[in-house]
Amino acid sequence: MVTGTYTGDAVDGRAIDIGFAPALVIVTSGASSRAPYMRTSSMTGDTSYQLDGGAGAANAIESLNAQGFTVGTRDQVNAAAELYHYVAFKEVAGFVEVGSYTGTADVQDIPVSFQPRTVIVRRHGSSSSSSTAWRNEAMPKQQSMHLAGGKPLVDEIQYFSRDGFSIGGSAFVNANGGVYHWVAFGSGGCGNGVKDPGEACDGNDF
Q1: Is 99:182 a contact under the CB 8 Å cutoff?
Q2: DSSP assignment of the chain, as one string?
Q3: Average pLDDT along the chain
């Protein structure tokens, strides 16, 4: 993971160099109440999404690249002379993984190569059922929430297993034929502790 800032220039195709190919990027303005935008490496085309929900938009986070990401001219990511903050995550085995799936409206098990501690799910497209759902391991079984706020919900991200997570039939995570993008965060094999890649587990990690 890396964090950083840049100053907007309102030029389309602005490249932000972070030194690696990110799996997830989130950008937010530091000068106003503009909504943060997110994009994962599983998303295609010139479309990214408000972190809390809503339809996808062009000219925001336009692409993720070998050395960073590219932003367009949308004010939420690149207004002239405005300061922006970003956080970028690299896909690392046991720590961060991204993917996508197609909804069936029936309960599904979504495979991940490790047991997640937190999962975020975002529907692709412009449907009204496009709020970003999330769940962490501390939530009771069957419950998840939306990043936009509100009370805990059922029938969305239901629980985690050693090799993935289960989703219910809600259109926010599993409409028949809908395409969904997900991000899973894990502990890298350190039980309940979260460590930086390459560090050994020790007694302080649990």
Answers
A1: yes
A2: -EEEEEE----TTEEEE-SS--SEEEEEESSS-PPPEEEETT--SS-BEETT----BSSSEEEEETTEEEE-S-HHHH-TT-EEEEEEE--BTTTEEEEEEE--SS-EEEE-SS--SEEEEEE-SS-S--PPEEEETTSPTT-BEETT--S-BSSSEEEEETTEEEE-S-HHHH-TT-EEEEEEE--TTSTT----TTPPP-GGG-
A3: 89
- Position 204 scores a pLDDT of 31
pTM over 0.85: yes
Name residue, tokens 């929900």.
53
